[in-house]
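Retry 2 of 3 after timeout on previous attempt. Resubmitting C-alpha cells to design endpoint.
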C-alpha cells in the first residue's frame, strides 16, 4: 500500500512539474553593442542596464496570456562596426530573437535596422543620428534624445549660458559624430555664432595636435567635437598642452565617466556635454538606481544604463497591457502608452522618437561628470 501511494505521489508531482514547465514562456532578449575595443565600457554598461531589468522582471514572475514570462539575455559584440553589426542582426533574426536592445552606435543601427525589420524584431537603440528613425521601420524606438536635440541644445547652451561668439567644430566622420556636429553647427549659425573653423578626424585617432594647432590660430572660445570618449579625452589633454583655453563641447558620448578616466585633470571644467535624460540625482528613484547598479556590478552606471533598464521595463509593461508577446502587438501598445522610468518618461511618436526628450548638460569636476542643468 505504501509503495502504491508513493508511486501515485510521484506521478502527481511529475504531472504538476510538467504543468508548471508548460506554463512558462521564455523570451530571449538580444543586446547588440561594442563589447570589445575602445567603446567596450559603454557596451558593457548598456548590457548591465538590460541585465538588471531582466533580473528584476524574472524575480516578479510576471504573467502574460496565462504564462509566466522568463526573460533570457543574449549579448553580442557588434564592435561599433557596421559590418559586424549587420552580422549580429542576422544572427539574432536567424535564431528567432524578437527583441533587441541596442545598437549603441548610429553607424551600426542604420544598416542593421533593415535586417531587424525584415526579421520582425523590435529594436530599442541609443543611436542618435536623425537617419536612425527615418527608414520607416515600425517597432524601432530611439530611447534617448536625437542628435537634433542634443547638438542644438549644446549650441543654445554655448550661446545663451556660456555667451561665446566664436566656435570651431571637429567631427570623426562617423554617422554619430558627423550628425551631431552638423546639428550643432546649424543651430549655432541660427543663433548668430561664428563657426571659425571646421576640422575632421577619425574614430581611431589619438593625435590631434595638427588640427588643434590650426584651430588655435583662429581663437575659438569653444570647440565642439562630434565623436566618442576615447578621442575626446586625449583631445582635451592636447588642448591643454597647446595652451588652448577654449571649452571642449560635445554630445552624450563626452558625458561618459570614461572621459574623466582617460583625460584626468585636463577635462575638469573644460569638457561640457549634453546627454539625453534627466539628472539621475535629481529625479525620483535616480539615486536608488545608481546605488543598486553599483552594488550589483561593482562599478558606477555610465551614460545609458538607466535608459536601457527603463526600456526593458517598458517592453515588459507593454507585454502585460497587450496580453501578448509578439513585437507587433507589444509595439502597438508602446506607441500609445506613456511609461515613467528612472531616466525620464517614455512616450513615442509614430516614427519611434521620444515625444519629449529631456537633456542634461554636464561638465567634469575631479575627473567625474557633474550635472549643470536639465532642459
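Retry 2 succeeded. Sequence:
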Amino acid at each position: 500500500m505504501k509503495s502504491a501511494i508513493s508511486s501515485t505521489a510521484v506521478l502527481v508531482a511529475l504531472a504538476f512539474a510538467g504543468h508548471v514547465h508548460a506554463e512558462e514562456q521564455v523570451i530571449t532578449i538580444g543586446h547588440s553593442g561594442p563589447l570589445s575595443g575602445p567603446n567596450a565600457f559603454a557596451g558593457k554598461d548598456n548590457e548591465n542596464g538590460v541585465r538588471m531589468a531582466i533580473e528584476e522582471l524574472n524575480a516578479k514572475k510576471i504573467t502574460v496570456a496565462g504564462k509566466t514570462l522568463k526573460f533570457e539575455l543574449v549579448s553580442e559584440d557588434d564592435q561599433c562596426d557596421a559590418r559586424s553589426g549587420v552580422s549580429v542582426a542576422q544572427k539574432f533574426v536567424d535564431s528567432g530573437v524578437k527583441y533587441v536592445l541596442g545598437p549603441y552606435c548610429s553607424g551600426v543601427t542604420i544598416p542593421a535596422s533593415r535586417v531587424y525589420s525584415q526579421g520582425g524584431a523590435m529594436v530599442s537603440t541609443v543611436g542618435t543620428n536623425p537617419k536612425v528613425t527615418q527608414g520607416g521601420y515600425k517597432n524601432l524606438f530611439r530611447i534617448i534624445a536625437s542628435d537634433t536635440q542634443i547638438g542644438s541644445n549644446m549650441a543654445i547652451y554655448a550661446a545663451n549660458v556660456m555667451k561665446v561668439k566664436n566656435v570651431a567644430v571637429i567631427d570623426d566622420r562617423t554617422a554619430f559624430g558627423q550628425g551631431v556636429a552638423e546639428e550643432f553647427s546649424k543651430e549655432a549659425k541660427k543663433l548668430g555664432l561664428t563657426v571659425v573653423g571646421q576640422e575632421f578626424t577619425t574614430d581611431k585617432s589619438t593625435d590631434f595636435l595638427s588640427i588643434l594647432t590650426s584651430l588655435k590660430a583662429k581663437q575659438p572660445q569653444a570647440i565642439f567635437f562630434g565623436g566618442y570618449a576615447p578621442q575626446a579625452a586625449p583631445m582635451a589633454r592636447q588642448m591643454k598642452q597647446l595652451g588652448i583655453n577654449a571649452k571642449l563641447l560635445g554630445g552624450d558620448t563626452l558625458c561618459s565617466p570614461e572621459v574623466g578616466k582617460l583625460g584626468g585633470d585636463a577635462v575638469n571644467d573644460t569638457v561640457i556635454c549634453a546627454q539625453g535624460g534627466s539628472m539621475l540625482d535629481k529625479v525620483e528613484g535616480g539615486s536608488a538606481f545608481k546605488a543598486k547598479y553599483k552594488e550589483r556590478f561593482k562599478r558606477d552606471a555610465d551614460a545609458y544604463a538607466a535608459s536601457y533598464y527603463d526600456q526593458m521595463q517598458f517592453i515588459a509593461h507593454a507585454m502585460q497591457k497587450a496580453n501578448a508577446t509578439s513585437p507587433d502587438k507589444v509595439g502597438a501598445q508602446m506607441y500609445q502608452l506613456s511609461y515613467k522610468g528612472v531616466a525620464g518618461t517614455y512616450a513615442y511618436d509614430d516614427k519611434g522618437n521620444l515625444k519629449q526628450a529631456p537633456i542634461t548638460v554636464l561638465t567634469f569636476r575631479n575627473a567625474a561628470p557633474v550635472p549643470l542643468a536639465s532642459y
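Attempt log closed. Confidence is low (pLDDT under 50) at residues 1-20.
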